Here is the input.
Amino acid sequence: MTALRRQMDEDMIVRGMADRTREAYLWAVTGLAKFYRRPPDQIADAEVQAYLLHLIRDRARSWSTCNIVVHGLRFFYHTTLKRERTAFCIPAPRQPGTLPALLSREEVQRLLTHASNQKHRTMLMTTYAAGLRLSEVLHLRVGDIDSARMTIRVEQGKGGQDRYTVLSARLLEALREYWKVSRPSPWLFPARGGQRPMDPSGLQRAYHAAKRRAGITKPGGIHALRHAFATHLLEAGVDLHTIQRLLGHRSISTTTRYWHLTHAALTTQAARLELLDSVPPVSPQG
Here is the structure.
């Protein structure tokens, strides 16, 4: 670890920032340094702006991803390097109210079937069946899977909140088969070497590759699986407050937007939340 990276991490620690926020901000600065192949403290604002343009135009990164990069870089330049001002920015999203394209159950099945290997298939299955964010999937530990209570513990999700989400019988079976082969510890889905979680870009690539092979042309990244989790629960008659708790939304208003993605009537029945039990079995492909 370089002295600058260590200083930035210490600056975040003393401010009580969550581990995942620290990792995201450090990742942002590392990406900038790798792009220009020189230390980030030697990179000017105009070059940072050009890098952000590269992320948006050439690498097709989402607005939310670029926004995280901007926040991470601003922290580095303002706090760690103590610069008074920076001039780089990204524009606000053009259509903040646009609803995401929704994957059907059949499309989710096809996507899982076309995952390139068992690890990727299990990660994508976990993302969908538990309604997890990308960072939450990557930071799962083996001990977070509670087969006795059929729950998954999500530690320090968005906003620094812990929560529990559902563990379906089908997902538990897939996780057990994956564990028998890979024996991960402590991270459930580690990077090579097993000491750190898998890089976010790796899972994003696995998602897009499976989507292409499945012939799915709907736009959007891996977050579409979380959208599918919520809307499929609505279609199954699960109430909004239950879905809010499973997704980890602080406000019910955030959850209600999924109402617009389904035509099914909402009920307050206590449905059994085993989404993957309604999906045909997946044949392993590696």
About this structure: Strands lie at 145-146, 151-154, 163-166. Residues 263-273 have pLDDT under 50 and may be disordered.
